[in-house]
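Q&A log
Question type: sequence-to-structure
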Amino acid sequence: MADLARCLPLQRSSVQSAHDLIKPFIHETPVVTNTTLNDLASSPQTPQSLEGTPFEGRKPAKPRMKFFFKCENFQRIGAFKSRGAFHALARLTDEELQHGVVTHSSGNHAQALALAARTRGIPAYIVMPTISTPSKIAATKGYGAEVIFSGSTSEEREAVVEGVMKRTNAILVPPYDHPDIILGQGTQALELEAQVEEMVQKEPALSTHTAAEPTTNGHNGVNGKKQHDQRAGHLDAVVAPCGGGGMLSGVATAFSGTGTYVFGAEPSFEGGDDARRGLAAGKRVESVKTLTIADGLRTPLSELTWSVISDKTKVRGVYAVTEDQILKAMRLVLERMKLLVEPSAVIGLAVCLFDEDFRSMVEQEGGEGWDIGIVLSGGNTTVEAISKMYTVAEPRAERVEAKVAMDGSREIENVAG
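Response status: OK
Response body:
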């Protein structure tokens, strides 16, 4: 990668410079809203739903939230990783890139670097663990990369990468552990910020901060019209997934000094919440071994990303959710928003829906509520993978598929859709 001495500092202006560089190569992904999910998040959980959780016995919080979803599942290669890969290559010289690039990744960075390398006309060598999903392996090869397989431990992976570098003289482009990657990933935050402001200007009701003030004529607002709170169009918070921390660090850097709180979200399964645990202990957790369904978040923070995420002025906190909560959030996005996303993408939404500590904070601090940006980080999954996640017993499956009636009968004729 580019010499650290040549890298721009991790600050908002550097993210803006990164955005200028990569605009020709990336999509400005859409931001969408959903009334149903706003209503669900703004309703208290039932006491029964908290049984068996760390929040059992607590009075369920009743926050008010309105969401703005940044849909990076519509990004090139189907995930936000394109941003960091294109920025990393843009900061390297032709001489540095003459022998191609190499990286290690289980999928999304692999595809992103393969695409960026093809665009630049150079070889890409991608070291992928054998546990990577077949669809991500196929996609990486489809972008023209040479895929080399390794074991799943960091030692095995690094040994294979070192061998490739010796054989090819390719330059290493890490998945998240470099300022150029972090700055590239942060560009989505700049887009989100500007898109939300424009959306709320056009449709004020999208925001929780549309105030109704009484006037002397007995109506609300001025001449009966609702007025904007000064915060309307300004996000109160953004929640982003956290694996190695490249995206969360980039988003936090982009929003630094703007007044928008940034939070991270992780899977708790088998210790996948290394950032949360590290922050609680005051020390970075250096190893993670988890088979969480959020397969894009199976890696620990690096020293660099830890330095950003442990800075309370940049990241206010990190929360963790269970596998079941991830699946529930993913089902809502699939069925209510009609968006194809991977499990890692919905983890921020899961925090907002199910974590009572987070929900209580919003209730206590939010006043009229919070406008919250949710990063849907990617959509690289398959019908087969989703089907397996939601496998149900045969009788229920037939009912879900509308093959049997509520009373179990199968008679049907001329039923309009």
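Response note: Confidence is low (pLDDT under 50) at residues 212-228, 399-403.
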